[in-house]
Amino acid sequence: MIRYLIGRLAGVVLILFAVCLFTYLIFFQLSPDPAVMICGKTCTEERIGAIREALGLDRPFLSQFGAFLGGIFAGRDYGSGATLVHCPAPCLGYSFQTDESVWSMITARLPVSATLAVGAAVLWLLVGVAAGLLSAVRQGTWWDRGAMALALGGISVPNYVLALVLQYVLVVKLEWLPFPSDVAFSDDPARWFQSYLMPWMVLAAGYACLYARLTRTQVIETLSENFLRTARAKGLSRPLVLRRHALRPALTPVTTLFGMDFAGLLGGALITETVFGLGGIGKLAADSIAKNDQPVIMAVTLLAAFFVVVGNVVVDLVYTALDPRVRIR
Amino acid sequence: MSARAGLLVVEDLTVTLPTTRGPVDVVKGVSFTVDRDDTLGIVGESGSGKSMTSLAIMGLLPRGATATGSVRLDGEELLGRPDRELRRIRGDGISMVFQDPLSSLNPYYTVGLQIEEAYRAHRGGSRKAARAVAVEALTQVGIADAERRAGHYPHQFSGGQRQRVMIATALVCSPSLLIADEPTTALDVTVQAQILRLLAGLQERTGTGMLFITHDLAVVSSLARRILVMREGDPVEYGEAERIFSDPHHPYTRALLESVPRIDDDAEVWL
Amino acid sequence: MSASSGEPLLSARELTKTFTSRGPGGVLGRRVAFTAVDRVSFDIRAGETLAVVGESGSGKSTTARMAAKLMEPTGGSLEFAGEDVTRAEGPALARFRKDVQVVFQDPYSSLNPRHTVERILMAPLDYQGIAPKGGRRALTKELMERVGLDPDHSQRYPAQFSGGQAQRIGIARALAVGPRLVICDEAVSALDMSVRAQVLDLLRRLQRESGFAYLFIAHDLAVVRRIAHRVAVMSGGRIVEAGPCERVFADPRDPYTRTLLAAIPRINPAWDRARRARADRASDPSQEAPHG
């Protein structure tokens, strides 16, 4: 087990290093010259040169990349002498647009994305898995057909459309909910809940539909397993057969998918955040892309990759715990 | 006709399955009797309806299938009873062992738990007490170090051991009838011999009536007192094993016996 | 007919297959080696049937795959018609494929369900780039007749045939290129008893007609007895006993072979003799009415 964990962690480090290298290559080497971007419209050759030197852009690629990596773990200094700026670890640089520390930009926005992801996940798991289960157990009934048709429709509706429709109905027409804003839970729990309710619904809708269909398929498949026939032949009650023998095998693959989806969402829900104007990682990504703010784009990319890679390991560990066949000695 | 009524009496059992081309009879008017301490072998090739017959007795037919006729266990009619009542009989009055032990055991739970739950479904009691019964059952079927092995998962057992676990599960409530549906077909020949010996030994000890379903005439010949040959849902021939094997009346039974390759003495060799 | 003696057609020397996999621990995991086949040697002469029998995990199927060149051996050599084919590639491998054909266990999964029988039977020729003499339709019909299928069904799909018939299609496909060796990997195991007997009879008849050799892989000794000239018994990746079929069955020398033979379920011999005696009387009218 220890050996397995060490192996996996080594793999994670390797992958994250590769991700760093490639994103760095793409955003700093293949993109327009950052120095020109920072310098703006009224710019001289000298100023560009000074900026390049301050950012270390005049040095060879590997040395630049080394400084970047070093910044993440140990912090780094920009410029020299009077213009020296120390950027404490973890240093992801400064925004070309606002000169803000990228790390503090991310830490400020991560709670919004996390809140969004957690709330939506709870919602889609409850609704999606329950609907899928009911459909599977009542296979072929009007409920099953209706729910599955709805789910298929739900998957096809883009969530910005759903966002606009919900906003019109719930906020404008019925005035049941306020317009979403990133209220902190500690300030006003009731308003926080009302604010996030609609974004949660929008974000969860597509996943709920997908999970309902997946759960249904998985449960139906499990119901036809030989060991289910054995369970019935032993004289177990129907609820026990379903709960113990059908649910766990059926939901294990759903758990795996959930881990990946959730990890993906921690890296920002670009459309939902943008539509509702919530200042999360997704919104940050959209804004920085629009303004070509390279340090921020890169940091957001790295963050998303980090969540996905770590999420992958967590999913594998959870899977190992759930399925005895893959248990590691 | 003996005065003693059989343990299991099946009369004119017909099973109908719905298909896209309308209902099809997969078992057509089958009748037989199994006594206590007695083994009936049902022999047939694929599509003979032998497995559907056993599922009909257990009340485990697939959705939409219907069974008519009569199935009586100790004089009690089983056909047409609601699932709730049949549940009390399954695993207690009648138990079943299936063909493929690996897929018939739930990979997510220890074999101990899977035996325990069969016991507790009918006898109740604490998990601890049930575990003791499960360990005893595993020992009975020849699993060494049963206490430790009860905590293992199905994939940690060999094919033959898995079938032993299935047999332990089936016998944990001391059923009066055991249905074994091709219990050795998925096993190697040496393992098959061990399992057949185990079943015969357990029957001798407990007096359980046995319904042994197989495609292999040689397998039942040592085990069954009576034989029912089935083909495409029809009962072809029914009688004492010795009579069926030495003097088969029906051409299909004769053809089936003819197709059993011989391994001893005067087997035809074609060189 | 009798098996011809002389030069072996296929000759395996010390064939070995070791599978390695990484144990737990991803890139840092220890490599775990497992020897499935351990220095197995055998010869098959033209026109003869060598059966390899064993239980699951004995290595018989891996041996068959290496002999068919569907799997690279880790060690040892394979010679076909005097030519070393152990590492054969390109034209040499193509020649080998034309001479050696395989019939698999599951007739349905080894036949493409979307192709007609004609397309399935002609596929080996298409791969080899051979144009059938007399046309595709004619050859298809001839092959179907040879394996006892209705030649008018050449445009049907595999699902329209029973298991035994589907296996006949598999056999016909193997015959299409005129092979010198046919490797049957559990070719009758999935079939019902009565169908199995018929397919075995067919395999014997085809060998009589065309004179090719069989490498016959099976777990069922009774089946083997019915078809093989020589038998090799495998256990734990090794051949524990090999010899003429009659000798191995009548006088098994290895303890494992004896266990295997003893484990085969048998019909009560007295009953079986009585039945056959009765059947003989019924088919022989001269004995039927002794009171005359």
UniProtKB/TrEMBL annotation, chain A:
Main location as per UniProt: membrane
Pfam family, one: BPD_transp_1_N
Membrane topology value: Multi-pass membrane protein
CDD domains reported in the protein's UniProt record: TM_PBP2
Localization: Cell membrane
Protein name (database record): Oligopeptide ABC transporter, permease
Species per Swiss-Prot/TrEMBL record: Streptomyces himastatinicus ATCC 53653
Chain ranges of the ABC transmembrane type-1 domain: 110-319
Automatic annotation (TrEMBL), chain B:
Membrane protein topology class: Peripheral membrane protein
Signal peptide range in chain numbering: none
GO cellular component terms attached to this protein's record: plasma membrane
Keyword line: ATP-binding, Cell membrane, Membrane, Nucleotide-binding, Transport
Main location: membrane
Compartmental location: Cell membrane
InterPro entries: AAA+_ATPase, ABC_Ni/Peptide_Import, ABC_transporter-like_ATP-bd, ABC_transporter-like_CS, Oligopep_ABC_C, P-loop_NTPase
A Pfam family assignment: ABC_tran
GO MF term (any one): ATP binding
A biological process term (GO) from this entry: peptide transport
Domain ABC transporter: 8-257
Family the entry assigns: Belongs to the ABC transporter superfamily.
Protein's name in the database: Oligopeptide/dipeptide ABC transporter, ATP-binding protein
Origin species: Streptomyces himastatinicus ATCC 53653
